[in-house]
Write a structure and sequence with these properties.
Elements lengths: L4 H15 L4 H11 L10 E3 L1 H8 L5 E3 L2 E3 L4 E8 L10 E2 L2 E2 L2 E4 L4 E8 L8 E4 L15 E4 L10 E8 L4 E6 L11 E6 L1
Parallel strand pairs: 3-7, 4-8, 7-13
Antiparallel strand pairs: 1-11, 2-3, 4-5, 5-6, 8-11, 9-10, 9-12, 12-13
This protein binds copper (II) ion (CU).
């Protein structure tokens, strides 16, 4: 799923501010402002809480310990940014926090990304780069699922669907918004 122009502009603005050396506080505040114009872009849709529950139920993984394992030619991975996000934002997958994902090589991985956070955007990207991640992570993503999601609002949650056809290897998923991966908003992916 592509990133539309309006979203692209906001992302460019983010990068320009980063390049200008703005402090994290300013960026976080700016993130609150940017959440508005992203609402209603083509890449994202809105779901009610019952629709979100139905989407979460489609996750086809098996959770064990801190790992979620997927199998078959088509796997459904449902990634939720849950509330509350304090002290740090994180991902929930199959009700585990930032779990390790084990995925079958060559399969079609269908992701659903759901941001349940009001007033703040998050992203979901996959990289071969390893932690620790910097405040402004340089990651050369192999998959940009979402660059800057709309924040939730008016009782609905923003969601996006995207797919990946991974080859064997060790990857990480992370949120590329400044400081989030540094604070631990990432997890491991093993494709085999
Ligand atoms: Cu984030």
């Amino acid at each position: 799923m592509g990133v539309d122009r309006r979203e692209q502009r906001s992302v460019c603005r983010t990068r320009a501010l980063m390049a200008a050396g703005f402090g994290v506080g300013a960026l976080l505040q700016a993130g609150l402002v940017w959440a508005g114009p992203l609402v209603g872009t083509g890449a994202f849709k809105w779901a009610t809480s019952s629709q979100v529950r139905a989407m979460i139920a489609k996750d086809s993984g098996t959770a064990r310990g801190s790992t979620v394992t997927y199998s078959g030619p088509v796997a459904h991975v449902v990634v939720v940014v849950p509330q509350p996000e304090f002290p740090f934002p994180k991902f929930d997958i199959d009700h585990l926090r930032n779990p390790t994902l084990v995925l079958p090589a060559g399969a079609t991985i269908k992701f659903t990304f759901i941001n349940k956070i009001n007033n703040f955007s998050h992203s979901f990207q996959i990289t071969r780069a390893r932690p620790p991640f910097a405040m402004f992570p340089k990651i050369e993503p192999v998959l940009v699922g979402t660059e800057l999601s709309p924040a939730s609002g008016t009782g609905n949650d923003a969601f996006a669907n995207f797919s990946w056809h991974p080859s064997a290897g060790h990857y990480y998923y992370l949120c590329a918004i400044p400081g989030h991966a540094k604070m631990g908003m990432f997890g491991s992916i093993i494709v085999r």
